[in-house]
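Fold it.
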Amino acid sequence: MQELTHYLNGEHVKGGSGRFADVFNPATGDVQAKVPLASADEVARAVEIAAAAQPAWGATNPQRRARVMMKFVDLLNRDMDKLAEALSREHGKTVPDAKGDVQRGLEVVEYCIGAPQLLKGEFTDSAGPGIDMYSMRQALGVTAGITPFNFPAMIPMWMFAPAIVCGNAFILKPSERDPSVPLMLAELLEEAGLPKGILQVVNGDKEAVDAILHHPVIQSVGFVGSTPIAEYIYGTGCAQGKRVQCFGGAKNHMIVMPDADMDQAADALVGAGYGAAGERCMAISVAVPVGDETADRLIDKLVPRIEKLKVGPYMAGNDVDYGPVVTAAAKANIERLVQSGVDQGAKLVVDGRDFSLQGYEDGFFVGPHLFDNVTKDMDIYKTEIFGPVLSTVRAQSYEEAIGLAMDHEYGNGTAIFTRDGDTARDFANRINIGMVGINVPIPVPLAYHTFGGWKKSVFGDLNQHGPDAFKFYTRTKTITSRWPSGIKEGGEFNFKAMD
């Protein structure tokens, strides 16, 4: 069995704690590798190496740092197939979806090539008599990121690319469920010219997380995962004086107005609800049709589409719609929540509970589920299921529909499907949610805008990627300078008498 490693100072390093976690192939249920779980001492060693390497990297001019990112983009494109296959093998998502995972990270790397422009400071000439004032953005030093299983390429790149191009060193603690791609990314960055020690990959569990949070040298921590853990990391990290940015759970609503193109809305819901087996923080998990007639029309459109979904392993070809969920525990949790929906009175219109894939009976596959007549007191409405389960909550008016999304504790993303511009504009202006789609089901911003939710979906005041990333990974220093002014005596061209 393969034994994975940490990546320290440009080398693969075996774990020294004696503790390991199993890495599964979700399609078969087999353990395909084991990954070391770092001790606090191993985290401290990684930080020590990073701290030694960072000053020289921070002193490297931004244009040269950006050139490393240029080369990194080339290498990501070169190895796209290899990265996607490794990602699919450990996560379970289809190969096209895995390539999208890499691509959306790559786009942030492309944005980071603009670091020379984005890191420019400000200058005021003659702020006072003989006084000039200017500001500069400087690297924090050693930074860290704790990333989730559902995007093992994209989210690490969302964090380490801006951190590194700003002149920081970075400690990456990826998910122990699918750690191979982060290790591969570290290798590619060094092939692109990144000095050894600037990107360190330390695999681990809560012991490694706590070591990161309490290490005095680490200046900032980024996190993506569940809301309870986001709250813990934010509170602990801030108490240690660190800059912290945490992104938590979601329950994303898509409002379908009576005037919407129902075929377009149904297609959008199927892709947004069931893609990646629903294991996306921006997945649409709640459909809110306005009016019973709209709801009936929407359900009629959804059922045949959902029943035709092809569920299978990534090896089965590019026509597979979604694969398994990541672990047996995740599958069991989804099945428990589905049963709670039935027990609490929701109508299970498409029942995927008996789904089984011949030849992959031990895999972590979950059939697609569609609920109707869901109410907001039900567990399937309140909880982020993170699986292929779509709940339909019928609203009798636009105001009731928008109120559902606004009253929910999560505020990551939302969407509305309508042909009416006034409704769309009102929705965009009023909704208390961070990312909004108008006839777009998954409104993940492109790299030059920022990604972030509201309410209990985020902890911290700056979003991921875009301009906010350059603010998060730098400090502003402001200098006020004054030099003597006035007319000088000038040069002497004749011998001057001695005084």
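The domain at 2-248+457-481 is CATH 3.40.605.10 (Aldehyde Dehydrogenase; Chain A, domain 1).
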